[in-house]
Amino acid sequence: MRTLLKVGGVIVICVALLLVTLRVTGFEPGACANAGASWTCRVPGLWLRGHLVTTPVLDWSFTDGIQTVKVQTRDLFGLPHSIGTYCVSYTGQLYLTSVYGPGLPPYPHGRRWNENVARDPHVRIQIGDQLYDRILVYVTDPDERATVIRNKAKKYPQQIIRPGSYINVFRVVSNDQRIPD
Questions:
Q1: Domain 29-174 class?
Q2: CA triplet 170, 174, 176: central angle to 5 degrees?
Q3: Ranges of each domain in the chain
């Protein structure tokens, strides 16, 4: 029994040291201009690092020239899970998208970051070296979805969406806004 406690203690200490090391290094996802370019662009990371912006953003159209942003969610155990994804602005609002290819299960299943957002919509978004703590709201309005998807197709003509694919659309809102039911 003593040996088991010693081994358990060593494991706990090693895990704690590993988490501290990862927190210091950040282990961010790769910086790729095209989030779907290679498997290294799709490998998730942990904490995002940068300068936290606390002032409200009234117009997100400055992201029109930015190809990808990074999003940090929280998994079931409270650990960060960060990925790179596409962004689209429309009428000053910022939207993030997630494409589900044919055969993938519908939202929120199939992508870990989508599952995390469905459970806890509070996220951290990294644009350049700026961090924004925000809330993601799943867009269900068909007209708003369609317009955002059209704008996405204009911004990313190189992205090929296969027939039968489904695109999730999330609107970025500030932390002080109420989350719609």
A1: mainly beta
A2: 130
A3: 29-174
